[in-house]
Amino acid sequence: MKGHGLLTRRHLLAGVGAGIGCGLLPAQAAPGQTRFAPLAEEEALIAFGHVGPITDGGWTTAHELGIQKMKRVFPKLRTIYVETVPYSADATRIFRQFVAEGAQMVIATSNYGDFIKDVADRAPDVAFLECDGTRVTDNLGWYYITHWYASYIIGVAAGLMTKTNRLGYVGTFPVPSVIASANATLLGAQSVNPACTMNVISINSWFDPQAATQAASALADSGCDFLCGITDDPAYLRVAQARGLKAAMWNLDMRRFGPDSYVSSVVLDFSHFYIEQVRARLTGQWKAAGTFLTLGHGVDRDVWGATVPPEIAARADAVRDRILAGETPFRGPIRDASGRIRVAAGEIMDDQAIYQWDWAVQGMTGLV
Amino acid sequence: MMRFQRFSTATAGYVLVWRALAFVVAMGIVALLLALSGRNVGELAALVARSTLGSRFGLEDLALFMAPLVLTGSAVTVTSRIGLWNIGGEGQFYLGAIGAAAVGLFVHGPAVVILPLMAVVAMVCGMAWIAVPTLARAFAGVNEIITTLLLNFVAELLTYWLTTGPWRDRVTGALVSTERLPVAVPEIWGVVHWGFPVAILVACGLSLLMSRTSWGYEVRVSGANPGAARYAGMPTRARIVAVMLLSGALAALAGMFEVAGTVHRLQGGMSDNFGYLGIVVAVLARRSCLAVIPAAFLMALILDAGIVLQTQQLAATAVLAITGLVLLLVAIADELAHYRPVVAEPVRRSAPGVSS
After folding, report:
1. What does the pLDDT average to over B31-42?
2. Mean pLDDT of chain B
């Protein structure tokens, strides 16, 4: 029993792993049935809905970089995008407008749930993709990165570098992707330093640099000397730099915002996925599916920061090598915040279980 | 000799003419800026027209935007009749959504029972949310603008807490929301649900209430001249309490329709600022309950055009700037409508000390 697809990108056809969650749609994506006619490159219109501005320096910039690389492969393709799509009925309106303007493929770079599914259900000829989604229908698929392995590796470095044994985490919403990120980081830290604890502050936004700065300052005030998080922007790295703390980031190489504090980042590369998906849509081969981009294939830890001691980097990278070789660090016993064993000794949490993680591990406060 | 003099009242005709002019000027400025940034203004305008008023989808969206805007606009308008400002529509909207979601999630029964119950519970929740500012205003003279505004943030955080904590969706588990409510407000035209006609009827009913009943008369007098109202024996304090509670209920009803008709899940951020936009609608409506309907229509048109412009690579902030420009010029136009040309009498100038 290994984690799903650690070495190769694995298409999880037909929904998201049998037996997890009864509410997931049955999602038999009618294998082999090509309902999407082939398209000439110059006729195609691909629309992107982003959760933040493409200049956020993080999550949305990472997607934009992937899109730019994709457009170099398909230079005649037309793309449009909308930034800062809210999680409200406005999202439905924007996706509907994409369809009305003739988009044959709509890609949301965040989880819009019903707001995108309602549009997809009424536009069966348009291919929809949702990052961090959970449902697969005939024309709606999802993709996500298995960022928890990169977070675990960075957590190992955090556990070795913290002096106070208190890690701070700038959270966004208590949703599974965030819970998985925080839990993985703390488990990585505890694997080398069992005394580590983590304090989380959620700011109810993916992109709110002011709130992230305030949260980071509060975490630093409470004694955390290593900051991590999952915000779209580099705000808390600046706080760490100003206060002489260490910080691990997300999305992109952000060392220029805090060269002394920068430890590493969960770096993302969506270009190969976008190229593959757009090509499939153009050739008429596109099928709705759930796809994980795995460690080394779309997500990884960044090159270690200048102030990370080489022996610590080596210890963390040894863990990375073991994960790349197929070993999973998410192995029981894993206890929740109340001390109860939630993953029995010897049991393994696979990617689907981690993707649905809704409880905090031992030593965590403020997460859920 | 002709000159312009400011009058204390502005006739509806003047206001309309000046506003139309303001709108044209605003569009002209926007067109000029877009042209300067290298965009094809004609094409954009045609696209906006086609995607809002010129298509079935666009009209459906306009109606969906209008339903909550009419209700939150009415909420602010009724308080303005008694001289108060309910800035807390956003919070009462969320409380209405919370109340409706609670009924939807935890009470089971046929839709004909559940939906009216949702509306009642939502309105009670909205009234409860404005109760403290109301009592503080009526009995202690505490400024209602501040108290209602500050409760907005509490309401939104309460929504986030409920939707990520006790009421969070444990089925798909990925959204910052509750489960999908099992009961929905029936759709009557495409995605347009009963919230739209109900909102229009509510606005019409409020207009009758304000203009044709002694209750409405007392509210208007209490707003226009509280001293005179008290001297005439009108129960000013009771009217303040009633109007503010009514206002809270109206904004909450907007939240109920949004959660049960449009979004189907309670979630943070679902309000789309309808509570705050209600203030804009009320300003545009100039304290007329009936004028709330065209004001909400204009606001809906701007919002819907904003969606279209965003897909044409205009940033959301640019759309916000356009909205701001329109409203700024409309406010100036409203002031200009108070001015009318008068012919000054030349006699007055040479009156004293002239003997001929």
Report:
1. 90
2. 91
**Which strand ranges, in their side-by-side order, compose the sheet holding A78-82?**
A10-12, A290-293, A140-145, A127-131, A105-108, A45-49, A78-82
Q: Which residues of chain A neighbour B172 with C-beta distances below 8 Å? A: 21, 23-24, 113, 134-135
Angle between helices B292-311 and B274-285 (to 10 degrees): 130
- Tell me if A5 is assigned to some domain: no
> Chain A: nearest CA to B282, how far in angstroms?
22
Name the domain count of chain A.
2
B303-308 long-range contacts, Cβ below 8 Å, gap at least 24? B303/B65, B303/B277, B304/A93, B304/B51, B304/B52, B304/B58, B304/B61, B304/B62, B304/B65, B305/B48, B305/B52, B307/A90, B307/A93, B307/A94, B307/A97, B307/B61, B308/A97, B308/B47, B308/B48, B308/B51, B308/B52
Measured distance CA(A316)–CA(A311) in Å, rounded: 9
Question: B189: which strand partners?
Answer: B192
For the purposes of burial, counting CB atoms within 10 Å of the CB of B178, is it exposed (0-12), middle (13-18) or buried (19 or more)?
A: buried
Domain ranges, residue A134: 10-146+269-293
Q: Is the pLDDT of residue B219 over 80?
A: yes
Residue A27 has pLDDT above 70, yes or no: no
Q: Minimal CA–CA distance to A51: which of A3, A117, A9, A107?
A: A107
Domain span including residue B202: 68-295
Distance from CA of B309 to the nearest CA of A (A): 9
Prediction pTM value: 0.87
